[in-house]
Amino acid sequence: MQLAVDVSEPKIIGISGPTKAGKTTLASGIARKICGSDRKLPPQFGRDRVERFLGGRGSCISVVGQDSYFKGGERNWELPEAIDHSWVLQTLRDERSDRLSDLIIFEGFKAYWDEEVVRELDLILWIRVNEETSKKRRMRNKSVTHEVWNDMWHHHGNYEKHWVKLLGRHVIGDHEAGSAAPEDEEKCVTLDGEQPAETVLKQALDVLLKRGMLRVETDETDSTEPPKRTIRTAASRSRSRSRGRQPSASSPLLDAHERCANPSCWFRASPETGNGGYCCRKCHWRHATGFKSGKAHNKECAKIEASSTAPLAAAVAPAEDYVSQEAAAARIIDATAADVTSSQQAIPTEDHTSAATGVSVPVADSMTSISIHFQRKLCCANPNCPFLASSDPLQGGYCCSKCYWRALAPRGSKGAKRHNAGCAKAYPETPGTARAPPDPPEEAKLYGPLPAGDQSIGIADTATANSAGIAGPSVDDALASERSAGQLVEMVARGRIKDRDVVTTQQRRHVGLYESALKAFFSGKYSECIASAEMLLDEKDDVPAKRLVEAAGRLKAQGTDPRRPNLTAL
After folding, report:
1. SS3 25
2. What would the mean pLDDT of 351-370 be, rounded to a whole number?
3. FRET pair for 194, CA 20 to 30 Å: which of 26, 37, 393, 558?
4. Nearest CA to 488 among 524, 542, 528?
5. Do 270 and 262 form a contact (C-beta atoms < 8 A)?
6. Could you tell me which residues are beta bridge partners of residue 5?
7. Which of 380, 364, 276, 374 is nearest to 53 (CA)?
8. Each residue's pLDDT tens digit, 27-56
9. Distance CA 126, CA 386 (A)
10. Which residues does 92 contact at the CB level (< 8 Å), separation at least 6?
11. Beta strand spans in 355-483 (E)
């Protein structure tokens, strides 16, 4: 049974209950059941407290854990005052307004304490567990003293009474409360946490199906199609020999395969369910975490390949240039046309005639489509980096993981400006060296030229200029004449001048507006980008701001969002 989200706008589901009731297990279980895998998107521009599960058909589920929103300082963590509820509320509202995810799951042991947070929830799930079961599970995983346990359960009882009174509904134990409003009755559902985790998950999914948030999708296949055989690979045949059973012979039917879920890996997916559609656990781990950009694979990745050496498909070359959507699609389809199987789900889009095969081939794999989408990125999302963005969707629009980390690091972590050979991962043909990419189109020239002292270099020529030793203007020269906000932002980013050197109120305001517009542009919030840039243009004729408005307007008209994995627009 394949489940799919059936909502016109993002819905927020709340999950709460006593300690060890299975809140986190249920939240991740719902996400994995809907998405069909453990694949996750990278943190979005520093908001690393939200897990986003990526589905094979473009769906995305966000999981917000309340444990990530504790206030700093020493305090009693069992008290609701230890949680920054305003931060939680802002996160939920941002997730809903961004429309990145189809479902947002919010779980926590005090999830229903704040009234404003409860108003944001479209469905309230309460996992009911008695004190004995909760204590047994707690002591099994993380033992605490009886005094600490009694204090924990006392605070939990107060929390139950609070949220039941808040909702005005009699749902837990023998607590008394007033009459419930009809909308509250529709929102509240109690699950039996005494049951196994699989049973609780089934209860929750049934509720979502009943409420119309999910639907069951059935694959329409020809009744004359032969039944699918279990995939048997070199690894499974080896296990059969070790257990004294006669292994099945290799054949085209038995060796039918799907590609590893990591776009950077060219081996077939492992038939073991624990590998989540990847060739091996190490490949899964590297892809999910971004470690080594998910591209470094050792012998483990070849363990299911009979030859143990040859990859199963041609490598998808990274973009050598800033390419159009059609060119990027053609490049990937030509490289993977032979590997498109009937098991892959097609995404609604126009067919493309492959230049290599002359056959009309649909863009069939959702991960491939995401790679196509990210190859449309103009340049690395770190404005200090001169390289192209990686086509790997889990790099989040950056050239590599190190560049991503440095761009989000606090000011002073190597200045967030120094990049080593790790940034050259986008150019495997020249490993260990750094070079400037080709000239970007107008969309990438967001900063405008620097003053004459920098010979009017653009952002893509940073490495060339630095290697040539071109000296930038002094602080006095930079501020003596009228500079555009884009020039000031780039000069601050390159370390030519300091933030404190932008002394006038008007300059600070212009720089702030331009930085806000630029951040919104790379976040995919094109309307917000245009609004900030137009506020700047109302006060000053700023050429980079005009370019930014034009670029955001074009992308907005195309209906594209560089962060959203649901690429039906393609």
Report:
1. helix
2. 33
3. 37
4. 542
5. no
6. 214
7. 276
8. 888 888 888 766 666 555 444 578 888 775
9. 50
10. 12, 64, 104, 106, 117, 120
11. 360-361
Helix residue spans in 481-525 (DSSP H): 485-493, 505-522
Q: What are phi and psi of 450, to 5 degrees?
A: -80, 170
Bigger pLDDT: 43 vs 217: 217
Rounded-to-integer distance, Cα 127 and Cα 120, Å: 19
Q: Are 403 and 382 in contact, with CB atoms under 8 Å apart?
A: yes
**Helices 505-522, 543-558: crossing angle, 10 deg rounding:** 20
Dihedral sign of CA atoms 473, 479, 483, 488 in order: positive
Q: Which of 329, 416, 414 has the alpha carbon at shortest distance from 370? A: 329
- Give the C-alpha separation, 427 to 421, whole Å: 10
**C-alpha distance across the termini of the chain, in Å:** 27
Q: Residue 12: which of 179, 178, 125 has the closest Cα?
A: 125
pLDDT of residue 106: 92
Q: Encoding tokens for residue 222?
A: 């020809």
**C-beta separation of 117 from 85 below 8 A:** yes
Q: In the Cβ-directed half-sphere of 508, how many Cα atoms lie within 13 Å? A: 8
Residue type, 81: E
Domains of the chain, each with CATH number or no CATH:
2-217 (3.40.50.300), 449-570 (no CATH)
Pairwise CA distance, residues 408 & 496, whole Å: 20
| Tokens found for residue 455 | 């010979």
Predicted confidence band at 506 (pLDDT cuts at 50, 70, 90)?
Answer: low
Strands, E assignment, 32-130: 50-54, 60-65, 103-107, 123-128
